[in-house]
Write a structure and sequence with these properties.
By secondary structure, this protein is of the alpha+beta class. Helices cover 46% and strands 14% of the residues. It has one domain. Strands 1, 2, 3 and 4 form a four-stranded mixed sheet that branches. The longest helix is centred in the last third of the chain and has 16 residues. The protein starts with a helix and ends in a 12-residue tail after the last helix.
């Protein structure tokens, strides 16, 4: 992997997404903190991974049917800092397998597996408490309700302003 980095190519990169369901840009931070990575997954359509790095890391864990992309991202980010591309690279429609109500338990179980692999017990406990204190369940409830689009646009717009992000919301320029 070091050869790719020496050649000026990032091993792991990510861009922003446009969420069609919410009709708003979803910016990712330029630097990914452990706290962010505990709470969030970079949408797999927004990830760019060097093939050589993926092969060297052992590829995807086939036991993780819904969280394999998150597992690889965290595994690779241990040895190479992810690079934010600063552009919107995914026009996300949603409604994938991982969003089906029938998959919620599997998604939660796999998230627990991934967190135990890449976060210490102390981080899991501390971040878990912080996650609840930031009203995650309330935010998720709003996103799943009839108010989801309105709340989502407000929430991601606020994140853009807080992060000082200039997110390209006209995804047509990338088609």
């Amino acid at each position: 992997m070091a050869g790719l980095e020496r050649a000026g190519w990032p091993v792991l990169a990510y861009g922003d997404q446009f969420d069609r369901r919410l009709q708003t840009a979803v910016p990712y931070p330029r630097a990914l903190s452990r706290w962010f990575l505990f709470r969030n997954n970079i949408c797999h359509q927004c990830q760019v991974v060097a093939r050589a790095a993926l092969v060297q890391a052992g590829g995807f864990d086939a036991m993780l049917r819904l969280r394999a992309d998150q597992d690889v991202f965290l595994r690779l980010s241990k040895s190479s800092a992810p690079v934010h591309l600063g552009v919107t690279i995914a026009d996300y429609e949603g409604a994938g397998v991982s969003e089906a109500p029938s998959q919620r338990q599997r998604l939660a179980d796999e998230l627990g597996t991934v967190r135990r692999r890449y976060f210490s017990r102390g981080e899991c406990v501390g971040f878990g408490v912080l996650h609840e204190l930031t009203l995650f369940r309330v935010r998720r409830g709003f996103l799943r309700s009839g108010w989801g689009v309105c709340f989502g646009r407000f929430y991601y717009g606020l994140l853009q302003r807080l992060r000082g992000a200039k997110v390209d919301t006209d995804v047509r320029c990338h088609e």
